[in-house]
Amino acid sequence: MKVIVVGPRGKMGKLITQAAAARDDMELMAGVGPKGRDYIGKDLGTVAMIGRELGVPVTDDLESVIDGCDVIIDFSTKETAMDVLSLAISHKKALVCGTTGFAEEEMQRFADAAKDIPMLYAANTSKLVNIMNKLLELVATTLKDEIDIEILEMHDQWKKDAPSGTSREMGEIMAHAFGKELKDVAVYGREGVSPREPGTIGYHSLRAGNIPSSHTVFFGGMGERLEITHHSYNWECFARGACDCAAFLADKAPGFYTIKDVLNL
C-alpha cells in the first residue's frame, strides 16, 4: 500500500510517518506540508526525524503527488483537511482523517465523500479508547436515567478545540444510548448558581503544559460512583492505530468507515 502523510512535521504526522516506515505492508510515497515551511523539498525521513532518509520528498503540493498513492493519512488542521478531502474525492483516493474540531456541516462533507471514496474518519485511533467507548455504551444503556454523567478531558496547552473530539464522540455514544442527540443534553462547564439538570452530560476541559491525552467519564449514582478512564502516555498508540486504519482501507469499496470497523467492535 502506497501512503502519503499530510503534516509530517506535526506531532501526529511525525509518529505516523515513523510507524508507517516500520511496516512491511506500507510504502511511503511523500509527505505534504504547509506552503512556506523551511522543510519543503527535504527528505521525508529527515523531516519526520526517523533517523534515516526514505528517498521520498516532502512537498507543499498534494495534487502533484496524489496520483501515486493508494491512501492519504491526514491528522493536520481542519482548514488543511478540507482541502485534502476535496483532492481525495477528485482523484478517487482513500482517505483516513483524524483531525478534530469540525463543525457539523464540515463533518457532513466527510459523510458525503463516502459516495465516491473509501473514507475513514476517526476522532481517536487508539484501540483502548475505542474499547472504552464500548464500555461507556454498556453503562449508559444499562443504567439510563439512574445516573449522572460527567466527562473530564485533559490535554496539552497547544490543543485548539474543546471539548476534545474524543470526548465529543464519547458523549455522542452515551447520548444515543438514551435516544437523544448530544447537542440537546451537553452542558459545558458551570459557574455561579448552576444546579445539575437531570439527563445532561457535563463537560470539563483542562489544558496545561504538555499533559498527554486523558479522558475520564464519571457515572454518579446514589451512594456509589463508577469511573472509566483512559490515559495515553504518548502519541504512539494513535499513530499505530492510524496506520491500521489505512491498511484496513486497502481493498475497500467507497463507503464511510470508522475505527469500529477496523477493530470489529
From TrEMBL:
PROSITE patterns: DAPB. Its main location: cytoplasm. One of its GO terms (molecular function) is NAD binding. Residues 129-263 form the Dihydrodipicolinate reductase C-terminal domain. GO terms for cellular component: cytosol. Pfam families: DapB_C, DapB_N. Belongs to the DapB family. This is 4-hydroxy-tetrahydrodipicolinate reductase.
